[in-house]
Specification:
Number of strands: 0
Order of helices and strands: HHHH
Strand content: under 5%
Shape: elongated
Distance between the termini: 20 Å
Largest sheet: none
Number of helices: 4
Radius of gyration: 17 Å
Helix content: over 70%
Length: 141
């Protein structure tokens, strides 16, 4: 069971963080090239797909992470670094969910998403993921 949870956790980390970071990079490139006009449909579709993958992956990350700690330690009371890890994971989760919401609202309105806002939020995804990973590496060495 422990190995299954670890696999799900790492897999979800890659997809969750990747979706937020990918949308941030795409938004940044689009913002830097305004003369190129609106992004091609393939880029818009990719951003929408990443917007759907991210929240699902982040939820799996949370569930598998809590399961891992409980299976390994029998409690969620592991120490301050664990709570720092949870804070980073919470920041990443909230930001990925927010980017998905913004993208869905823009799609429903038939307007392009506010790329500058998505880019800024993606930086917070980075911060959350880096905080969570460093805390986990130190805590669970």
């Amino acid at each position: 069971m422990l190995y299954v949870l670890k696999f799900i956790h790492i897999f979800a980390l890659v997809f969750g963080a990747g979706s937020g970071i990918t949308n941030g990079i795409l938004a940044s490139r689009i913002i830097k090239n305004p003369e190129a006009g609106p992004p091609p449909p393939m880029v818009v579709a990719l951003m929408q797909t990443m917007g759907k993958i991210g929240p699902i992956a982040m939820i799996l990350l949370w569930l598998s992470g809590l399961g891992l700690v409980y299976v390994e330690y029998g409690s969620l009371s592991v120490g301050p670094l664990f709570y720092l890890k949870l804070a980073g994971a919470t920041l990443a989760l909230v930001c990925v969910m927010l980017m998905a919401k913004i993208a869905m609202q823009a799609q429903a309105a038939g307007t392009p998403p506010p790329l500058k806002k998505i880019k800024k939020i993606s930086h917070l995804v980075w911060l959350g993921v880096i905080t969570a990973v460093i805390s986990a590496v130190v805590l669970f060495n």
